[in-house]
Inverse folding.
């Protein structure tokens, strides 16, 4: 029996700034017929849904509404954005302990109604929450996808394009590993429209400070938060890009996180971002991009950091 290709219902759990921006982006890009916002604050979810729905009269008929977890029963995709934001003075570990518990409760509510759902995890810390959702749901790892370094990769490509004065669509480069401080920019295979990055930079006479680009990429989220208090448009576009790959079943290669299996050796059991082929059923194939020894060692460190972090929060 062939695959059924259609756009139908997407449930967004969490109607804060990120969830609302995602719902709006899904509507504008016509990626679902029915978008449902679920939040413990039902008034907030209803207000956000109404605000977006009113705009559909300028566009096309897409249902945007507030609902409960029962809406997950027939959802094509469930996106988890809920969680608390990090407060001044709060450690990353303290935040993770709170959000892991929230994610587990959300997952249990989803699985009460949904049979073999496809879940996209946005909540931070994204890699740890992806691991928690995978374990709590009991779903195959390919059906719980963390946004991982997809936004970090977008920031990386943007910074490279700005410094080399080239169309960002011609920049092919990845950030992999943790969505966090131990992320790994993969410079060795970076290219501009097929030209090795260093060769292109030499030809156009633009020097690229790789250390500065890597730091700007890693601190991109913190920079935006410092300037405006929160980030939500970038992650909304990142999520929309992942949704597009899934609903179009187009086998796009994107850097996302999921719990890796034993064939990845020391990385097994960690929700780590590597290039993956996405389609209608989630992650279809995990891929290993060529790395130099320094990059491989950095990926090993990133995986170990996530392992150690999980050990500290898993029993909360």
């Amino acid at each position: 029996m062939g695959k059924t290709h259609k756009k139908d219902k997407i449930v967004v759990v969490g109607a804060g700034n990120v969830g609302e921006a995602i719902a709006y982006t899904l509507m504008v890009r016509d990626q679902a017929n029915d978008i449902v916002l679920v939040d413990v604050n039902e008034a907030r979810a209803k207000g956000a849904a109404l605000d977006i729905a009113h705009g559909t009269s300028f566009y096309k008929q897409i249902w945007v509404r507030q609902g409960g977890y029962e809406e997950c029963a027939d959802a094509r995709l469930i996106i988890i954005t809920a969680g608390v934001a990090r407060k001044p003075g709060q450690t990353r570990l303290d935040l993770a302990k709170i959000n892991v518990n929230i994610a587990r409760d959300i997952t249990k509510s989803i699985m009460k109604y949904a049979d073999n759902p496809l879940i996209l995890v946005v909540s931070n810390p994204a890699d740890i929450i992806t691991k928690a959702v995978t374990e709590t749901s009991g779903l195959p790892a390919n059906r719980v996808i963390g946004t991982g370094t997809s936004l970090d990769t977008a920031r990386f490509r943007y910074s490279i394009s700005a410094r080399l004065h080239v169309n960002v669509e011609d920049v092919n480069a990845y950030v992999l590993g943790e969505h966090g401080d131990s992320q790994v920019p993969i410079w060795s295979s970076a290219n501009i429209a097929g030209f090795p990055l260093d060769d292109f930079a030499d030809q156009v006479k633009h020097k690229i400070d790789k250390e500065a680009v890597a730091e700007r990429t890693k601190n991109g989220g913190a920079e935006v938060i410092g300037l405006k208090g929160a980030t939500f448009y970038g992650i909304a576009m990142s999520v929309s890009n992942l949704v597009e790959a899934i609903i179009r079943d187009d086998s796009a290669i994107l850097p996302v996180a999921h719990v890796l299996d034993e064939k990845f050796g020391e990385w097994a059991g960690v929700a780590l971002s590597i290039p993956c082929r996405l389609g209608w059923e989630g992650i279809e194939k995990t891929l290993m991009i060529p790395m130099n020894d320094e990059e491989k060692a950095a990926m090993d460190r990133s995986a170990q950091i996530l392992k150690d972090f999980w050990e500290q929060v898993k029993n909360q």
In short: The mean pLDDT is 92. Residues 162 and 202 are 16 Å apart (CA to CA). The two ends are 43 Å apart (CA to CA). The first helix runs from residue 17 to 28.
